[in-house]
Design brief:
The chain is α/β, with parallel strands linked by helices and 219 residues long. Strands 3-2-1-4-5 form a 5-stranded parallel β-sheet. Strand 8 and strand 9 form a beta hairpin. The N and C termini lie far apart (37 Å). 35% of the residues are buried.
């Protein structure tokens, strides 16, 4: 069975893509690869690294961080990522799984970075209808909370809500059901890939990017 790395964001699309990979039986996930800023958070999702570590523990997989200073540029990030990937490449891992659905420019960027190391990307959710993916995520029994909202397209009151059927029903028509355009981000705390739920509490809230993004802190 082929060994792969999995690019883990802590959110719902990652969880669904990991479910698809684990239950396909076609490959073995060697580790979860997660970008962590110097503030010890996952970018955009703004979930603390400790909670992501608890996710990995509950799933039963190793978490491998790619550290990225918050003020860094793509070059810094790409160098750190390449160093981590090169280590796994030496052990025979040649593919990285991503949860992207339809953003062509993002997929192209990932594939270009992997090609430099003679590695390939795997996209189990690619090209699938986002409304159906959102419904599948919920029907499988996953549970997640919205941690970040882009207030230019969605009200701040959506932060802190569970990603469920009611949430989907309340979304404006211009917002993708999976938030694939960055409209919102989530933290998954339970579901079929978890051996146990990940406990958390809601903390304070804050904004970033001159007030555009509204974040709910989880502790």
């Amino acid at each position: 069975m082929e060994n792969v790395l999995f690019s883990w964001s802590s959110g719902k699309d990652s969880a669904l893509a990991l479910y698809e990979v684990l239950y396909s039986g076609e490959c073995n996930v060697s580790a979860l690869l997660t970008t962590i800023t110097d503030e010890k958070k996952v970018p955009m999702h703004e979930v603390s690294s400790r909670l992501v570590e608890r996710q990995a523990e509950a799933i039963g997989l190793q978490l491998v961080p790619v550290y990225m200073p918050k003020a860094s540029n793509n070059e810094t990030y790409e160098k750190g990522l390449a160093e981590v990937l090169a280590g796994f490449k030496e052990w025979g891992v040649e593919k990285v799984v991503h949860a992207d659905i339809f953003l062509e420019d993002v997929k192209k960027y990932r594939d270009e970075q992997l090609a430099k190391l003679h590695m390939k990307g795997v996209y189990p959710l690619w090209g699938r209808e986002t409304a159906r993916l959102a419904e599948r995520f919920i029907s499988l029994g996953f549970r997640s909370i919205v941690t970040c909202v882009d207030t230019s397209v969605l009200g701040a009151e959506f932060a802190g809500r569970d990603f469920d059927a009611d949430f989907l029903a309340d979304l404006p028509g211009n917002v993708d059901p999976c938030g694939e355009n960055g409209e919102f981000h989530t933290f998954v705390y339970d579901g079929p890939i978890f051996q146990r739920p990940v406990d958390y509490s809601e903390g304070g809230s804050y904004t970033s990017w001159e007030g555009r993004f509204y974040h709910l802190e989880l502790v």
